[in-house]
Amino acid sequence: MPCPEQQLVHAYVDGELDAESAVRVEQHLAACAACEAVRQEIEAVRSTLRSEATYHRLTPPRRDAILQQLRREMRAARDEVTEPRFRVRHMRQYWAGAASGALAAGLVAFAVALYMPRADTTMVVNDVVGAHVRSLMSNRLIDVESSDHHTVKPWFAGHADVSPPVADFVRENYRLVGGRVDYVDGRRAAVVVYRHGAHVINVFAWPDSGTHLPSRLLTRNGYHVACWKNASLAFCAVSDTAVDELLGLTHLLEAMTVPDSRE
Amino acid sequence: MTDKRDRFEREALPHLDAAYNFARWLTHSGADAEDIVQEALLLAFRNFDSKRGANAKPWLLAIVRNCYLSAARRDIPRERRTDTIESDGTSGAGEVLLASDDPEQATINRDHARRLDEVLRLIPSDYREVLILREIEELSYQEIATVTGTPIGTVMSRLSRARTALRSQWLTHVGGTADALS
């Protein structure tokens, strides 16, 4: 007969219990082998799902097409003009029909231009968001795969223009997965790749040569971009996590950067 | 109006990937998932003022799910779902289910991740849904209840049955060669 506490073990692993109940379940787990086995099974299912289940993503052209249609709707709402509403399926065929993709590309460029505040910040944001999306779409997420900062950090020395701070924030649930080099702002930027739950966070770092960074936080095409400068480095972190989760990582990173040579 | 648009970009669009992944797991089809996400985003924007709660994610995923259900109702004849297979994990059946009749597919199935995807498809859709929402999207019980329109008690019992089902399907079909779940 299953232990009556079993349901609570699930709630415990899911972080749904108040502190007092959690302590009670912990004590029970220490004493009940059956429930401890259940706890381990739950953890095994979780880690397998998180590491192995396919996280399906839109290809950049499909993503752009969907956002384009949405913006059309937004503009229509703003102008209080009721555009005819295309059946969604028809729209998709319509886009597929624009086989060259030239029209779509033109519209996207137009939309992008509308959303761009200033030229050089624009380029930086374009660079990092573009690199972020490409890294998710191709298998070129990481060049050096390691959760050990002693492996990742030296690797940058030979490959990028800078050697940024690297750490594995296990306790805060920002897992270091590796490093990569990307071209940002005309420099070979070091990219430190983290995983937070199912989400990838790319942290770009390159030498600050008076780069005009965008405001601290902005959202582009559904991706959040957080930028800051520290010592002689410019940083941009890009992800589709919630804002708070992205800022959680940037705070950790800002705290660990060595300020400057005077100290 | 621009304000609404900015807020929507800031609060809802970051969950576009989650919306697509969820739709993709509901439909098992990239094209259908795109349609559903497109429709859901437009609906979400129109009804953005009625959004309750701080987090837009469960709200958006609930809209995705509703769009999926109405699309499924519209398209019953051409439904090609594989998720109604109610395998209880008895021996024999699983080999047939997993060893797809497409030989290419069978080769790909060697891939570990691919096999987990297959196993996920074998469990009932209610179970699969709650596992994706909890373990992949990391929603709380309350948020899952919002998305699925079920009481929290149902979410809890379904989640524990789902975990048991996934594990037993895994052991039945992949069992001996896997380390993670055995």
Query: Can you list the strand order of the major beta sheet of chain A?
Result: 1-2-3-4-7-6-5
Structural category of chain A: alpha+beta
What is the end-to-end distance of chain B?
54 Å
How large is the radius of gyration of chain B?
Answer: 18 Å
| Tally of separate domains of chain A | 3
Average pLDDT reading of chain A? 79
Number of helices of chain A: 9
Largest chain-chain contact? A-B, 49 and 56 residues
Q: What proportion of the residues of chain A form beta strands (DSSP E)?
A: 15-25%
CATH superfamily of the largest domain in chain B: Winged helix-like DNA-binding domain superfamily/Winged helix DNA-binding domain
Oligomer: heterodimer
Query: How do the helices and strands follow one another from N- to C-terminus of chain B?
Result: HHHHHHHHHH
Compact overview of the structure:
The complex is a heterodimer of chains A (263) and B (182). Helix content of chain A is 49%, strand content 19%.
